[in-house]
Design goal:
This protein is α+β, with helices and mostly antiparallel strands and 505 residues long. The protein folds into three domains: 86 residues, no CATH class; 156 residues, Jelly Rolls (Sandwich), CATH 2.60.120; 230 residues, Jelly Rolls, CATH 2.60.120. 18% of the residues lie in helices and 35% in strands. It contains five helices and 31 strands. The strands form three sheets. The chain has a 15-stranded mixed sheet that branches. Strand 14 and strand 15 form a beta hairpin. The longest helix has 34 residues. The two termini are 53 Å apart.
Length: 505
């Protein structure tokens, strides 16, 4: 919805012939959907026409009227009639359009979810909530994990990736508090608006993406057509963006130009939780359905090797500072996540220094890292699976044997247990693994899981090397790792069973 002051400005500039084509489309869309805006247009158009008539001199008492005065009056009269006629044509055409659709089908906003999606839906009007998975004005959808597809009957489609928090203001305005959202808007829905804490994005017939993050400035990316982007901070500047352009809000309320990133957005609803995968078959780089997958750069350190794995080739590490280091910060806070991989280790492997298979986060704060490892209490004792949050450890009970492949899967929700300790489900060869708590056995300094990815001591994802500190003495893993997959969300037992079936094909 256009603010009243801006609506008046657009109408006056339209009548003066100075309104740009994108702004005209926006104004027309507003007049079609907003009866009050249409009334404002009629009032301004009438006033505009009267102003064209101008002031005339008092009529002379003389019975003789100069010919040039008659012609001037006639010219003014004709200009007034022409202006009012033009305004009437526009208004009548808009009214006729509204009358033509006098009994339109009710506008609805439905949504569907990808497998594994967790969400909470609440409605402002709780007395008569909409049926099924639909939103009405005032509905709020909080997406904990997974992704959703929104479909507006007026011609809007959107794919939104968790974590997300959105509210439908009206059927032409969506407030995106947090989330990564892609939008495709048809011609019948021109003027559809997405608002964040810092941006207002008005569609002018296009395809675009909006990213609203709690710990970063909001972004808009245009992939087709154009949008009107406006800052809601500072002097509230605005600009029209076309395909290939993107803007990011700034601390002072500006709109900084950034590269458009279409690959960062999902355009179709995935058939499982978004994931990032390292197969180690052709190289050490990541792939997967998660938007982050294509941006991750993986660096091999000290020439790790590849050997025959479960599928294709596996990453082979000698325990002597070989590892993979990435620039991906990992999932932060208490965001649900799951890690799945195959592992094998030789007879002489030593895990008393607790080298990581997979880890990221900040090791200097309580429960602010995420680390999966094989651990030994003393040399020559059988290793076992351990998950460390950085203060709280979950120790598995199965003794692992050398020279055998084991499938490891660790999945964690975002909720602590009754004591405030972080929780997880651990599986070995797809069977639930019992575990015991170590470290903080009472209420920890940081309740639950609080993985830190933006602090000074935070480390991005490392494979085969612990994030204890950056020196070369950091413990490194001795063994083989294959088919490492990180899922954006918690995996239920049913989903774990599905992954097991995929691995058995």
């Amino acid at each position: 919805m256009i603010e009243h002051s801006r609506l008046v400005e657009y109408i006056e500039r339209w009548l003066d012939g100075t309104l740009s084509a994108p702004e005209i489309q926006l104004l027309k869309a507003e007049l079609l959907r907003n009866p009050e805006a249409l009334e404002t247009y009629v009032d301004i158009a009438e006033t505009h026409g009267l102003l064209i008539h101008g002031n005339t001199s008092p009529i002379s008492h003389s019975n003789v009227v100069p010919v040039d005065q008659i012609l001037q009056r006639e010219k003014r009269r004709n200009l007034k009639i022409a202006a009012l006629a033009a305004a009437a044509i526009v208004v009548l055409s808009l009214i006729s359009l509204k009358l033509f659709f006098v009994t339109p089908p009710p506008t609805t906003l439905a949504f569907q979810t990808s497998p594994g999606t967790l969400f909470t839906l609440s409605h402002e009007n709780s007395e008569t909530p909409p049926q099924n998975q639909t939103l009405e004005p005032g509905s709020r959808l909080q997406l904990e994990q997974g992704s959703i597809e929104l479909t507006l009957s007026s011609g809007v489609k959107s794919i939104i990736l968790a974590p997300a928090d959105l509210t439908l203001h009206d059927y032409q305005t969506l407030y995106l508090n947090t989330g990564l959202a892609w939008f495709e808007v048809g011609k019948d829905a021109v003027g559809f608006t997405v608002k964040t804490k810092e941006l207002e994005v008005v569609d002018l017939g296009t395809e675009f993406g909006v990213h609203s993050a709690p710990d970063d400035y909001d972004e808009v990316h245009v992939f087709k057509g154009s949008v009107l982007a406006k800052s809601l901070v500072g002097n509230r500047p605005q600009t029209t963006l076309t395909a290939g352009e993107a803007r990011k809000s700034t601390l002072t309320g500006g709109l900084a130009a950034i590269p458009a990133q279409p690959k960062n957005y999902l355009t179709d609803l995935p058939d499982q939780l978004p994931f990032i995968r390292w197969t180690f078959d052709k190289n050490f780089q990541a792939s997967g359905s998660h938007p982050d997958a294509h941006t991750i750069h993986t660096t091999p350190l000290n020439n790790p090797n590849r050997s025959v794995g479960i599928q294709g080739t596996a990453l082979t590490l000698n325990g002597n500072q070989q590892s993979l280091e990435t620039d991906w910060p990992g999932f932060a806070g208490d965001r649900p996540r799951s890690v799945s991989f195959w592992v094998k280790f030789p007879q002489n492997a030593n895990f008393t220094s607790f080298p990581a298979c997979v880890n990221w986060g900040d090791n200097t704060q309580g429960n602010s890292k995420w680390k999966i490892m094989l651990a030994q209490d003393k040399k020559n004792s059988p290793p076992y699976l351990r998950l460390s949050f950085g203060g709280t450890w979950l120790n598995g009970t199965t003794h692992l044997q050398p020279n055998r492949w084991y499938h490891i899967l660790v999945t964690s929700p975002d909720k602590p247990n009754q004591k405030g300790l972080p929780t997880a489900d651990m599986y070995i060869n797809f069977s639930p693994e019992k575990y015991t708590y170590k470290g903080f056995t009472g209420v920890p300094k940081n309740k639950g899981m609080n993985t830190a990815t933006t602090t000074r001591n935070a480390n991005p994802l490392r494979i085969g090397k612990s994030i204890v500190h950056p020196s070369n003495a950091t413990p490194t893993f001795h063994g083989e790792i294959d088919e490492l997959t990180i899922y954006d969300g918690y995996l239920s037992p049913l989903q774990v069973k599905a992954i097991k079936q995929d691995n058995q094909r």
